[in-house]
Amino acid sequence: MSRRPFTWRERYLLKKLYPKQQLNSIFELDPGGLRYLGIKGIIIDMDNTLVPRKERYVSPRLAEWLSGLKEEGFRLCIVSNNTAEKGGELARTLEVPAFWYAVKPRRRSFRKALRTMDLSVGEVAVIGDQIFTDVLGGNRMGLYTILVSPMSEKEVFWTKMIRWSERLVLKRLKRKKMKV
Q1: What CATH class does 18-152 carry?
Q2: Per-residue DSSP letters for 5-28?
Q3: What would the pLDDT profile of 31-77 be if each residue is shown by its tens digit?
């Protein structure tokens, strides 16, 4: 049995959920490729993107990776739905500006990050591990979105349900070979 094609409304909504790039880890990111696209700044999620959920330890590999991005001239900013109490020390250690209680996918914190980095929409990428927060929020702003695999499988029940929904969306998009 053949499925019906997407309507224009469904296509519009699904485009907002589809990342421009997918990686297994932030460490696979190609700074040269981003620079080629005109990207000068990166907004990064914290939980399960920079560090595993509930961890605030900065690994030497992470510190070196972020330091390398800064040396190459990228401006960085953390935007997280988490609290300042849980992530503030991490941001101070990494010497990266951060916005907490972001309520992603709302645009407010993304706009604040753009102002802090003093960059325009076309010059910034968003890296995160969730479609319905990081990718949707970034795409709503018109930013270049990069989805990474979560660092840890340990998650709260609600997030597990969201991950299940994310897998369904990505599977359907790939099956339809949707052009975004």
Answers
A1: alpha beta
A2: PPPHHHHHHHHHH--SEEESSGGG
A3: 999 999 999 999 999 988 998 877 777 889 999 999 999 999 999 99
How many residues are there in the chain? 180
Alpha carbon distance 177, 129 (integer Å): 22
Amino acid in the structure at residue 96: V
Is residue 102 a contact partner of residue 109, using CB atoms and an 8 Å limit? yes
Nearest to 142 by CA among 10, 15, 52: 15
Task: Decide: 111 and 92 in contact? Cβ < 8 Å.
Answer: no
Q: What is the dihedral angle through the alpha carbons of 86, 87, 88, 90, rounded to the nearest 10 degrees?
A: 130
The domain locations on the chain are 18-152
Residue spans of alpha helices (H) in the chain: 8-17, 31-36, 60-71, 84-94, 108-117, 136-141, 157-176
